[in-house]
């Protein structure tokens, strides 16, 4: 059913515009209702079911909860229509339930919103009025009690007048007053009371109580209601009224099969019944649910029911999971999750619309000649910005009409807009402290209760705990911080022009950002030094805060050095906008965000791009000395990877001379540059003073493998891996193992197999492009000389390397191909490889790879006086013999395999 959308209808003079309340999907919620109701109908027909059993657990309630504007009221209305046994009004997306004709379902929807003015008395009357119109007969036990209550509380006011004035008579008719009079008259007749007192409810009920106590045969029809006499003797106040539904449940159980009816009471806007402190109305409503086990209740509200929380004993009459099985389960985004006792959960979180549902909603909400008024491109824009929240869609429709009234056609750019109304709807039922926490955590991508409390600057956690239970706070129990705000609500809180009474000023936001930043630093500094996950999480959040609010770097300096120390390179932060990543650097925080982002992205970008980004940062001069040297050092590494050895040497020397934290790394970089130039004695000598900080063992391994000293190199890389394990540096462990696998791949393929497997396992946990390429080249070397598609695989790898800017990896791959051709004795292919190696290398950049290729094939070196002569650790002939022996070893292995 699609009702008229009066708000949209009155927003335009266009009479050709069709504005309807479009209803979209919610099939999972309908399935939850049909499942729960089917289970309920089976339960109340069981032989052991007793409507007067006040101790049995209750499974007659189903709750739908979710953030304001998610569509709970619309769902409640649609459920009412669908349960009315009227297929015409049931949404087409919903299946027809296979319920029996009897007992009949009677949907009774009651809006508990403050604006609806529904009090408890009106709630009870509404249920009874609905039954009066359906059953068509008195329900004497309840009607007598209600009549007594009415005359006590509304002396001189006829019930008919009250119902007419409140609009209930028009909705349900005038049957109830007549049925109540009939019940009173029938009771008087059964008690043989004189006519003069037959209409005096006090005397009739007094006589009835005596007759019930004396077990007279004349009142046997009511004698089965064991607690009727007690209720009729009790002072007829509001407290007593809340127990009268027990009488109503009894009377429903007495109806003949052809008159049987099961009320389905839909209580909407349940959050307006009170709060955590004031539960008076909630207690009365819970009493109704408990005392009417043969009725079914569908409750919609912003928060889950807490009735299964034993801590509420004393505030509510029945609490705990034993009383309300199904309500104790945590919130779930669908209806088919089971509870611990095997039953289905009765607490269902209403989720956001899917993109398809959003588009369907917008397409059907406004139409002209049965065609969508909102175009497809604009619907996509609104859908994307809505994050699936129906309230946003509704507000966007009204904005569409508003822009249209101005005389122009709405465009996608018009919806780069935040709606302040979202804030008002979200915080409406929050306490002041909860609102304060909500705004504070909107600065955070994720949080836990301690972090939220510190970010808000509150001395106690209670408000943060309460906020974490709200439906707009999503929970990921496996996350570093388990809670995060609904994406649209978070972005709106951050950017909307908030007009609420307790709206924050710019200074309030700045102070909250500083508190959040400090709290993140405290969480990281007090954790284990090896908690990499927490380090990265704190960095991600704190970098954004520091960038967006211009905060001093503080603890970020130390955290940044911890981040780079393991060479894992998890992604940290995006650029501030959609422009160049380096655009608009104006603070130290901007520069640090760009530096760390460039370092993380260099595993996925061309090294040229890395060098450009770091140069931009360095030129700003915004970073403190330590971090400035970090940018200089990693730019020098990028220059080395690109083959710009002179630029790399200048940068490395600058950092080494500075004597800062990265000086050992820079000295290692200078040793690498000496190795690249072929000055191996100098490079090896440097390992004696590099130490662990300079990764001395890995530098030694890099020097030894090019000598053909496979054993010495493998041992050095193994020592480097073990040292990395001792220091808890996963990146170093993976890099060293990758190079050990590469080195041993020149020897026995079976041995190399295990080493490559280990390298791949270690690399899976880090993001190291160069080391990953080393492991893949090792796999080619392992298969060198075979017909396993080595050359085809090398072509694929060549294409991948070309996008990275890692020139040294390209040269290393070509050297591996030269080994393959030498083993196969393919002279032409080998000559081509040597030619490519000449193009990829130069005097100060891996020129000795050309020599090694000649050594492998047993070829003499070209007689070129200008060709640089590498300084081997041993003489040239020893080096030549070792490489030639490796080729012979592989050929022998292939012959005997």
Could you explain how this protein is built, in words?
Helices cover 56% and strands 5% of the residues. With 897 residues, the protein is mainly alpha-helical. Strands 3-4-5-2-6 form a 5-stranded parallel beta sheet, sandwiched between helices.
Quick recap:
The chain is mainly α and 897 residues long. The protein has four domains: 6-24 and 353-417, no CATH class; 27-349, no CATH class; 432-492; 695-896, Serine Threonine Protein Phosphatase 5, Tetratricopeptide repeat, CATH 1.25.40. The protein has a five-stranded parallel sheet, sandwiched between helices. Strands 1-7-8 form a three-stranded antiparallel sheet. Strands 9-10 form a two-stranded antiparallel sheet.
The major β-sheet equals: 5 strands, parallel
Q: Per DSSP, what share of the residues sits in E-state strands of 2 or more residues?
A: under 5%
Overall tally of domains: 4
Task: Average the pLDDT over all residues and give the rounded result.
Answer: 87
Strand numbers in spatial order across the main sheet? 3-4-5-2-6
Low-confidence stretches: 330-342, 577-582
Anisotropy-based shape: elongated
Span of the ends, CA to CA: 76 Å
The strand count comes to 10
What helical percentage do the residues reach? 55-70%
């Amino acid at each position: 059913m699609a009702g008229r959308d009066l708000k949209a209808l009155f927003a335009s003079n266009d009479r050709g515009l069709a504005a309807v309340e479009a209803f979209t999907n919610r099939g999972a919620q309908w399935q939850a209702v049909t499942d729960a109701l089917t289970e309920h109908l089976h339960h109340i027909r069981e032989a052991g079911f007793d409507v007067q059993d006040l101790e049995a657990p209750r499974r007659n309630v189903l709750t739908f909860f979710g953030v304001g504007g998610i569509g709970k009221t619309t769902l409640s209305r649609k459920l009412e229509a669908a349960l009315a046994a009227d297929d015409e009004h049931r949404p087409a997306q919903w299946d027809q339930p296979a319920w029996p004709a009897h007992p009949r379902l009677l949907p009774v929807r009651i809006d508990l919103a403050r604006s609806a003015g529904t009090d408890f008395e009106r709630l009870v009357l509404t249920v009874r009025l609905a039954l009066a119109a359906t059953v068509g007969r008195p329900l004497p036990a309840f009607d007598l009690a209600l009549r007594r209550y009415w005359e006590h509380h509304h002396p001189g006011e006829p019930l008919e007048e009250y119902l007419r004035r409140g609009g209930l008579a028009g909705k349900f008719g005038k049957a109830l007053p007549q049925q109540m009079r009939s019940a009173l008259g029938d009771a008087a007749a059964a008690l043989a009371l004189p006519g003069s007192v037959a209409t005096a409810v006090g005397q009739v009920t007094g006589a009835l109580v005596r007759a019930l106590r004396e077990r007279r045969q004349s009142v046997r029809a009511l004698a089965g209601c064991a607690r009727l006499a007690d209720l009729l003797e009790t002072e007829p106040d509001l407290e007593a009224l809340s127990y009268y539904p027990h009488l109503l449940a009894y009377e429903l159980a007495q109806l003949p099969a052809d008159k049987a009816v099961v009320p389905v009471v839909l209580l909407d806007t349940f959050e307006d019944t009170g709060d955590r402190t004031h539960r008076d109305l909630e207690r009365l409503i819970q009493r109704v649910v408990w005392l009417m086990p043969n009725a079914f209740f569908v409750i919609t509200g912003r928060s889950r029911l807490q009735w299964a929380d034993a801590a509420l004993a004393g505030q509510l009459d029945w609490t705990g999971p034993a009383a309300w099985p199904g309500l104790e389960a945590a919130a779930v985004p669908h209806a088919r999750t089971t509870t611990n006792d095997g039953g289905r959960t009765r607490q269902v979180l209403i989720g956001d619309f899917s993109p398809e549902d959003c588009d369907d909603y917008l397409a059907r909400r406004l139409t002209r000649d049965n065609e969508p008024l909102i175009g497809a491109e604009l619907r996509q824009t609104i859908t994307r910005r809505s994050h699936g929240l129906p309230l946003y869609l509704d507000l966007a429709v009204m904005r569409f009409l508003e822009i249209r009234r101005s005389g122009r056609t709405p465009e996608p750019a018009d919806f780069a807009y935040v709606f302040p109304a979202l804030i008002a709807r979200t915080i409406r039922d929050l306490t002041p402290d909860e609102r304060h926490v909500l705004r504070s955590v909107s600065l955070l991508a994720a949080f836990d209760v301690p972090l939220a409390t510190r970010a808000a600057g509150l001395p106690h956690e209670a408000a943060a705990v309460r906020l974490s239970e709200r439906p707009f706070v999503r929970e990921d129990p496996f996350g570093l911080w388990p809670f995060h705000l609904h994406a649209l609500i978070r972005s709106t809180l951050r950017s909307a022009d908030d007009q609420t009474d307790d709206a924050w000023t710019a200074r309030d936001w700045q102070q909250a950002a500083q508190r959040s930043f400090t709290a993140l630093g405290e969480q990281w500094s007090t954790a284990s030094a090896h908690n990499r996950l927490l380090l990265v999480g704190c960095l991600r959040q704190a970098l954004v805060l520091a960038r967006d609010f211009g905060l001093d770097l503080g603890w970020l300096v130390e955290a940044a050095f911890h981040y780079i120390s393991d060479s894992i390179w998890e992604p940290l932060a995006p650029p501030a906008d959609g422009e160049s990543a380096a655009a608009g650097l104006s603070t130290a925080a901007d520069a640090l965000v760009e530096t760390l982002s460039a370092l993380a992205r260099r595993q996925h970008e061309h090294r040229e791009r890395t060098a450009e980004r770091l140069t931009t940062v360095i030129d700003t001069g915004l970073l403190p000395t330590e971090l400035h040297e970090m940018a200089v050092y990693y730019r020098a590494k990028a220059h080395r990877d690109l083959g710009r050895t002179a630029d790399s040497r200048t940068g490395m020397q600058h950092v080494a001379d500075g004597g800062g934290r990265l000086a050992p790394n820079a000295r290692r970089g200078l040793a690498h540059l000496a190795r690249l130039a072929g000055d191996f004695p100098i490079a090896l000598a440097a390992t004696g003073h590099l130490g662990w900080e300079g990764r001395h063992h890995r530098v030694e391994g890099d020097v030894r493998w090019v000598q053909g000293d496979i054993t010495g190199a493998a041992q050095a890389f193994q020592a480097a891996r073990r040292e990395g394990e001792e220091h808890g540096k996963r990146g170093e462990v993976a890099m060293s193992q990758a190079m050990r696998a590469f080195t041993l791949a020149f020897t026995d393929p079976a041995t190399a197999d295990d080493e490559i497997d280990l390298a791949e396992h270690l690399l899976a946990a880090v993001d190291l492009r160069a080391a990953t390429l080393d492991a893949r080249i090792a796999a080619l070397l392992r298969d060198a000389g075979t017909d396993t598609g080595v050359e085809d695989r090398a072509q694929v790898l060549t294409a991948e390397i070309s996008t990275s800017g890692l020139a040294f990896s390209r040269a290393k791959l070509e050297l591996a191909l030269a080994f393959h051709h030498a083993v196969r004795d393919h002279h032409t292919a080998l000559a081509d490889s040597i030619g490519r190696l000449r193009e990829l290398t130069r005097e100060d950049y891996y020129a000795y790879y050309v020599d090694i290729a000649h050594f492998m094939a047993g070829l003499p070196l070209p007689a070129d006086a200008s060709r640089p002569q590498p300084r081997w650790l041993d003489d040239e002939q020893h080096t030549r013999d070792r490489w030639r022996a490796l080729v012979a070893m592989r050929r022998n292995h292939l012959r005997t395999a």
